[in-house]
Amino acid sequence: MEDDRRVWPPGSPDPDPPWNPQLRRTVERSLPDALPPDTLPPSARLYGAPAAPRRPRRWPRRAGALLALIVAGGLVAGLATVVLRLAVPDQARTAMLTDATAAVAIPLPEGWRQDPVPPVTGFTSAARRGGEALVMARPSGAPADAARATAEAAELYSRLLLHGDTVRVVEDRPITIGPYGGHTRSLRAEYKDVVNRPAYLRVMLLTKPGRTVVVVGLLQPDETTSRQALDEVMTSVR
């Protein structure tokens, strides 16, 4: 077979110049006028001659220093916020149980917090201290007999919340708290097993012109100091 490869004499120009674009030339998807189309590779005919690589941008020294100051300032501000939050006790942020539906408010001592959702259906607000004390409030209709309505509510919540083997009444009397008049009834539940310690339930029905509120307090275990603390919270209703 005859070899059809062509050999060019030394020193004679190659009719097909090699593709060797200038690195400094920048072409945007167009053929350069200085080079005929045959001198470019097929891809360059479609997309344009390759552009020279761009040098990476460098931030000016002043811009870098300014960025460092901004970052440092943000860190200092964040640290100050954390310190201030640690320095302010939880009581300052959740110092009041506010019930817009029942239109009442109860100041909460240190250690108490308001629950986002009351644990018993029908109540519109609740606050607790750990797992031992609970206070709930709800609006109510004006009763014809405050003492009877309070006794019925205490019986209902006793069966719902206490489940005591023996339940006895420890207080039943009329009360006056600020602009409210009404009645209160307290129960103590005891259990035969050794696991459940005695529990305390207090129900208050408070009325004033145009408004009636039921406030319920639950405590377990029932101890003298804890009961006094619970009663103090309940009687501070506004």
Describe the structure.
There is one protein chain. By secondary structure, this protein is of the alpha+beta class. Helix content is 27%, strand content 27%. A 7-stranded antiparallel beta sheet has the order 3-4-5-9-8-7-6, with helices on both faces. A two-stranded antiparallel sheet has the order 1-2. The chain has a domain at 94-234: Protein Transport Mog1p, Chain A, CATH 3.40.1000. 20% of the residues are buried. It has 5 helices and 9 strands. The protein has helices at 42-47, 61-87, 90-93, 146-162, 224-234; strands at 96-99, 104-107, 113-114, 125-129, 133-139, 166-177, 180-190, 199-208, 211-219. The chain crosses the membrane at residues 64-88. Residues 1-56 are annotated as: Disordered. This is DUF1795 domain-containing protein. Residues 10-20 have a biased composition (Pro residues). Keywords: Membrane, Transmembrane, Transmembrane helix.
**How many helical stretches?**
5
Task: Say what the CATH topology of the domain at 94-234 is.
Answer: Protein Transport Mog1p, Chain A
Report strand %. Answer: 25-35%
State the fourth-level CATH superfamily of the domain at 94-234.
Answer: Mog1/PsbP, alpha/beta/alpha sandwich
Distance N terminus to C terminus?
A: 113 Å
The arrangement of helices and strands along the chain is HHHEEEEEHEEEEH
Main β-sheet, spatial strand arrangement: 3-4-5-9-8-7-6
Mind telling me the CATH class of the domain at 94-234? Answer: Alpha Beta
CATH architecture of the domain at 94-234: 3-Layer(aba) Sandwich
Radius of gyration: 42 Å
Low-confidence stretches: 18-34, 75-94
Helix fraction by DSSP (H/I, runs of at least 4): 25-40%
